[in-house]
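Let us work through a complete example step by step.
Step 1: write down the sequence.
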Amino acid sequence: MRLKVIASTGKWINGKWVKETTKAFEEGKVYTKMKLTTPCTKLSTTSPVIKKPTHTRLPEGMLPEELSSKDISKLITARYNAMRHRGNYKSRIISTDLARELKVKSNTPGLGIKVEETGTMWTYRKPNTITDNILDFKILPKERISMSVNAHPDIINVLDGFMARGEIIVNGKVIKTIKPPKAYYKITAEPLEGFVTQSDPITMYFREPVMKEQLEALKMITEPFKGLENVSKADKLFHSGKIEGASWLSLARENTPDDLYKSFKRALSINPILAQGVYNLRETKIPHINLKIYDTYDKSVDPMIKQMENYRYRISAGQQYAIDSFIDDYVKALGKSDLDRMM
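Step 2: predict the structure and record it as tokens.
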């Protein structure tokens, strides 16, 4: 089959003068020539030029293949710390004397209130109606309210009264009583440090979903102590749980042990090294969730996979967010073709 291209000056063909330079004649028929294109435009006369997705770096500057599982664990922890524990909220410390008084009061049992000291960075306060050790996690919380508040001892009074007796205390007076929540709260053990560096120096955990009147009550009793600085820019979790009319509070679903398990399984489908990095960050084993999928002595199964399949672990909402955001960025940095090759 013969293909003839017409010169720009034109020629007599079959008794006609042809000036068209973008056409070809084949056996007396006219065919429009097609330009070489990329796959996302018109069809090409040649094989399409496939552009390989750009292999990029993680926000921290590394390529995914440069990282060991320990490196991954450290980077995820650094993300978490940057989001939750490296603020500069000095305005929350109204005075050092009040902050010291707050520390003493937070460690002292109140009317209908018990104290559980963890020996770590938190002190837990709970109503006497909660008889189990809350850190055994036999009953997992459903929701939480994080608080960006000032270091003042009187906040213990209002939170204790609300939690133990359903009291709404404003300016030292009980103005109303509602159904108390099934809840407990934790407060940073070192106010002079924690109220400056932590986005949420106080967090209340609810064993049942928060009722509307309970939420309105918390807004009312905590407003006198609200922090002036906006933490939502630094702490994405705080922003995602924002409450209308209460920028100092954040309401969110509490993450579950299954959330970590799902993140681990996703990481494992991408890269075993990434999965190991996530695995390293597991913390509290939940004793009443023991699935016993694999026998302890089954040597055919990777110990890491066996452990994650047989048990569930609890981590904080901030840690869960840091893990998931890192996995997302890891996938983006690999690029689709590289990800397909690894899978």
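Step 3: interpret the result. The first strand starts at residue 4 and ends at 5.
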